[in-house]
Amino acid sequence: MISDPPIFNSSPVLEGTDEDQLLRVSLGPQHPSTHGVFRMNVELDGETVVKLKPVFGYLHRNHEKIAETTGYLGSMPYTDRLDYICPLSNNWAYALSVEKLAGIEVPERAQHMRVILAELTRLVNHTAFMGFILADMGAWGSALMYAFREREKILDLFEDLTGARMMANFMRFGGCRNDFPDGWDARLRTLIDHYPHFLDEMEEFLLGNEILLARTRDVGALPKESLINGGVTGPMLRAAGVNHDLRKADPYGIYDRFSFRIPLGEVGDCYDRIMIRFLEMRESLGILKQAAAALPGGDFVNPKIKIRNFKPPVGESYARVEGPKGELGFYLVSDGGPNPYRYRVRPPSFINLTLLEDMCLGLDLADVVIILGSIDIVLGEVDR
Amino acid sequence: MSADPAVVLESLRAAIVGLRADLRRNPGPAAQHSILVDPDHLLPVMRHLRDHCGFDLLTNLAGIDWPDPKLADAVAVPDDAGDAAVRAAGGFLEVVYHLDSTKTRGAPLVLRARTADRSDQVSIPSVVGVFRSAEFQERELFDLFGIHFTGHPDLRRILMWDAFEDHPMRKDYVAPDDYEYEPTPHGDVLEKARKHDPPKP
Amino acid sequence: MIPLLILAPLILLAAVGAVWKARPVHAALFLALALSFTAVLYLALGADFIGLVQFMVYVGAVAVLIVFSLLIIHRGDESEEAARRRRALPLGLLCALPVPVVILAAVSRGAPTTVEGAPVLSVRQLGTLLFTTHAPAVIAVVVLLTAVMVGAALLAREPQPDRRP
Amino acid sequence: MNDATSSPKPPGKRWSLPGAGLLKGMAVTGRNLVGSFFTKERMTTVQYPEQRAPISPNFRNFPFLVHDGDDPDAGLRCVACSICEKECPPQCIYIVLERDAEGKSLKRPKIFDIDVSVCMNCGICAEVCPFDAIYMDGEYELSTGDRFEGLLFHKERLAKSADYHMRLRPKEATQVMERRKAEEEKKAAAAAAKAAKAKAVKDADANPTASANPKPEGGEA
Amino acid sequence: MTASPAAVDAAGWFAPEQLPMLPQRLVEHLLSLTGAPEVLISIAGIAASAGTVLLVFSSAFALLSLIERKVLARAQNRIGPNRAGWFGLLQPLADGIKMLTKEDVVPDKAEKFLHFLAPVLIVLPAILALGVLPYGRDWTPLPLEAGLLFFFAIGALTELSVFIAGWASGSKFPMLGAMRAISQMVSYELPLILSALGVVMVSGTLSLQEIAAQQSGFHFGFIPAWNLFTPWGLVAGLLFFICSIAEANRSPFDLPEGESEIVAGHMTEYSGFKYALFFMGEYLGLFAIAGLGITLFLGGWQPPVPGLAYVPSWVWFAAKISVVIFLYLWIRASFPRLRIDQLMRFAWLCMIPMALLTLPAAAIWHFTGRGAFSWLVTLPLLLVPWIILGNVFNRRLAPGRRRYRFADG
């Protein structure tokens, strides 16, 4: 029986601080390391954080209202703009939800293509994360440039396949928009073989570094129960040791055919989160190898589904995908018309921020930056 | 405990005496059936689900605005057996909860709670006391739908700026066109589009 | 003599500034200015070692620490500070009265104003002197200083609540 | 859950030379520093104005209208059916059908504007167009000084020849060409068949008794 | 500097070895021809030698700002500025013009005069400190008898100026930056001076020319007799190098302007040429501290290899200072930043004890005959505590090994 969590009292000022000595600082919305237009009203006693209030809404464009006045297909390019670092996993989550809503089944080749693209997106996201977390710590962009050099190779693959490096708009209801161009899966295999060199180089650069150990050990750790209760999902949750990965917990696509493992940490501080993302990258490479090997022939989209005035039957559906940042879900309610009646996005970055204040209380301003970096938020998804 | 609503409903009825809740069938092929719970019983139901039924992760809160209840009952079909808490003629606001479990595998459990009507009685008890993850999501529903969550520690607008009055996600929301207007033909493209398929009432 | 004529009024001005200024930080900076001018005075008189040590110790350490403590307690309402200063003026003048009297007495009795004949010591000789003939005095000072250091550290360490989770 | 307690590098091992991790970090930057002079694979910088990175054939930027033959106005494939205008998510296409004097549609767009400041080059218009009239362009140097007129592409600027499309995307263009040729033949065959049937009916009128047509002709294809 | 020598050995002036003194001698020679009074000639001579130092080091500052960006770029697989001029050589000029033409914004809550004074006070000590370093065999612009003491005395002024910059800007981030800067500089000045003390003890003098001169000669023919190649000198040199990074506010210790946390620290409210002055102060301070490090531990202008006598001495000084500066750039490209309390703990718990240890080690090394035997005695005395201290420090910081389990259930 978990006792009720410390109900969030609106001003949890730490004991032992007199009011007038506080320094009120607003970190953001225009700040070098808030990963976008995100603002935190921080009250500091000297260097220690006494109170931290996140402020959202700077990038809010009411994506869900736009979806209610656009057709099902028209919303697909908008899902690229949710978490613009991993557009293909957003597309897949939306396509999965519409397929469940309309009962469409997906041919074999498309399922394999989707797994390949989702795991490539996970590599892109975690590689960029390594670069950003080091830049937040002040390593002047060296790790950032190595990470982006490798990320560009994957984005070139996306550009050849979908037409755009990031704004893929590639999944359709029942499969994908077009097939692999010739020579694409050969280049995919060379990328998979070459990627571990980059991972070894980054691990050598990152994990033994005493300064990094000092900066990330025991910073922003929370017990397992309050993380689960706070709705945290994704690498942050697994870093605390909770075995909850949707690819295994609620299998979708054809993940149950591939053998891969879920890395779990122990303490759940920033160091574990970095380490978990490293191990996840290695697992993704394993999945990619198996999926690329088992890629069947056949059509890449379900031919029976027509693109224009697509009207799913009345009903609702909630489908979710294990995105690189956590559980990305789409809840659709259809009233039989061409536009969805209600279109709700379950944003992992937004909900992972619920416990930001609990992690930062009592730590320094420099730790707040690292903790925010380790949560890995993208403002397109937080503000929708 | 498996996420099948029927089984969960039985365990809830056993645990909470005089529970007003019924099973709602999802007509679409997704077949994700849900349990409609009366707002007064929401907190005990949530506490029971978290402590005894193992649903410890509240992943998603979705708000839906139902101006006409018939459409709501078309999407979440009440089976006649249950003592359907049939609404009066007016519309209402609805909150859909998706509860997941980190211990057992499977799809999430779907719960629904409905307000009395769309204008003044729009309050639903806040579940932040039971699931801390609902805190920001409830603030978002308050901001975009106007559903008032009683017992929420810090109910403020989260996405819109504080001076904003209306609730944008309501079906009858009219977007203010007070921003400066750029004279591009795009303007009449919007008019043309509005003629093609006018937004539903 | 010329450097003395130039530097003395400067030191006086800086000292008055240090006393007169309402804002504590300005006062501290004027104090640092006064001390650095005295260091320049030592250098002008050829005592290199003393001048550099004076500059290093006073401006480098004392002034910085005063300023640092001011930075920590950066709340300070300067408004009623000026009023208090008005009331203290007569008392201050009264105490300052004997100083010009002593100076005038010394100058009228023809105290030597020049400085020749003072032994010019090189750093090496100074070092050997300090650690041979005056060794016990140096050791006493060292012990005293360490005691003061340890005392200050203990006093400053008010029980900080360890806030690390 | 098998607890394979293995981790690639046991960080914080029992006795480590302090500072060794830092030196390893410097070794990595050093290797990159030296490597950047030798292994070309590390240096990915493209000096833009002088060198240009080749765009991939599948790259899509703003759309363009395809016209057969060389006269952009006559050979335009677009029949102003405005399906793309309805399907475009941000509503940035604006089509006005050209009608002749007494209002009969000439199956040609009088005005075809794309507001490029709104278009997000998602490619849905190219996907839903049944007449292969609109495809995504590969040209990306479109900067202009004027925010309103400069970013509003009219029909003249959008129209490009079919062989430009062939040069831009050879594989896709050839498929389109074959499909159009196949339709041409089918339509020609249908027209021929219809013409033959009309001739046959005419013959029948000329000599009604000669050959009563055994079975009434179905609607033409 | 002696009065102007007779014209006959004027040929000597142009020898490569005497090149740095050339401007001073020319000015003095010309003035003496015009028959100006003696005092004026000596003042002009000093001004000329000061002018050479300023000219050389401001051009070196311009070059370093370009080379830093080039080296950082290459370490990150980029090319670095190559648009302005040939290979980017005009980039410093371009930066200078940009800085001059940028509008000089002064926040209204700032103390106007102090806000203006701070950048000047940052550049001043760096230039003064440059005057006292021995650049060649017999050329030191300001040959003081207590040169090292002068260097540290002037160095103490930078803390005051950083505080003025931070406090006078009036807004929050500079205040935080000033707090961090002072606490960092004060706590790293101590190990800096302590590690230099070993050299003073062994060479017995405070004058830098003496220290550099004493490090001549070679052991066993090829190891130069620099202070670095002694057991205590190795550790003291390393400590001095680390503390010099902290004094110059550079990479692992660039907390005062940690831009990912407090935007630009005490320099946030500055723009235009005042911002450029801050950078000039930082880079000249870097040259000064690197120059001092070379003089104390790497034998100033002593040649590293016995054979090359004809190479002028100041070339060796330039070569060594560029190697040390390259080390700074390399470190800047590869280390994240420390947190303020770790920084302080590292200074007080790790640097100062080690620095104190080098003093008895130097004494033991001196009294056991400075030969191979003394190596055997002093080296373990220094290395063992380093290992122990390092591991205790690491274990306290990074307790316990982390195990990661894999669940495929």
Features:
heteropentamer, B: about 200 residues, alpha/beta, Beta Polymerase, domain 2, six-stranded mixed sheet, two-stranded parallel ribbon, about 20% strand, D: about 220 residues, alpha+beta, Alpha-Beta Plaits, three-stranded antiparallel sheet
Short description:
Chain A is α+β, with helices and mostly antiparallel strands. Chain A has 15 helices and nine strands. Chain A is globular.
**Strand elements of chain D, count:** 6
First-residue to last-residue Cα separation of chain C: 65 Å
Strand count, sense and barrel status of the largest sheet of chain C are:
none
Order of strands, widest sheet of chain D: 4-1-6
CATH topology of one domain in chain D: Alpha-Beta Plaits
Q: What is Rg of chain D?
A: 31 Å
State the helical fraction of chain C. Answer: over 70%
Q: Give the overall pLDDT of chain D as a whole number.
A: 80
Order of helices and strands of chain D: HEHEEHEEHEHH
Pairing-aware structural class of the strands and helices of chain C? mainly alpha
Ranges of chain C where pLDDT stays below 50 over 5 or more residues in a row are none
Cα-atom Rg of chain C, whole angstroms? 21 Å
Can you name the CATH architecture of the largest domain in chain C?
Answer: Up-down Bundle
Give a written overview of the molecule:
The complex is a heteropentamer of chains A (384), B (201), C (165), D (221) and E (409). By secondary structure, chain A is α+β, with helices and mostly antiparallel strands. Chain A has two domains: 13-55, no CATH class; 63-383, Cytochrome-c3 Hydrogenase, chain B (Orthogonal Bundle). Chain A has helices spanning 63-68, 75-80, 87-102, 108-137, 142-162, 184-206, 210-216, 224-229, 235-239, 246-249, 270-293, 348-352, 356-360, 365-375, 379-383, and strands spanning 23-27, 39-45, 48-55, 171-172, 175-176, 262-264, 315-323, 326-334, 342-346. In chain A, the strands form three sheets. Chain A has a three-stranded antiparallel β-sheet. In chain A, strand 4 (171-172) and strand 5 form a beta hairpin. Chain A starts with 22 loop residues before the first strand and ends with a helix. Residues 1-12 of chain A have low confidence and may be disordered. Chain B has a single domain (5-170), classed as 2-Layer Sandwich (Beta Polymerase, domain 2). Chain B has helices at 5-15, 42-51, 69-75, 134-145, 186-196, and strands at 21-25, 34-37, 57-66, 77-78, 92-100, 109-114, 123-125, 148-150. In chain B, the strands form two sheets. Chain B has a six-stranded mixed β-sheet with strand order 3-5-6-2-1-4, with helices on both faces. The longest helix of chain B has 12 residues, at 134-145. Chain B starts with a helix and ends in a 5-residue tail after the last helix. Chain C has 165 residues and is mainly α. Chain C has helices at 2-20, 24-44, 48-72, 79-96, 98-108, 123-132, 135-156. The mean pLDDT of chain C is 79. The relative contact order of chain D is 0.11. At the A-B interface, helix 3, helix 8, strand 7, strand 8 and strand 9 of A face strand 3, helix 3, strand 5 and helix 4 of B. Strand 6 of chain A pairs antiparallel with strand 3 (405-407) of chain E, so a sheet runs across the interface.
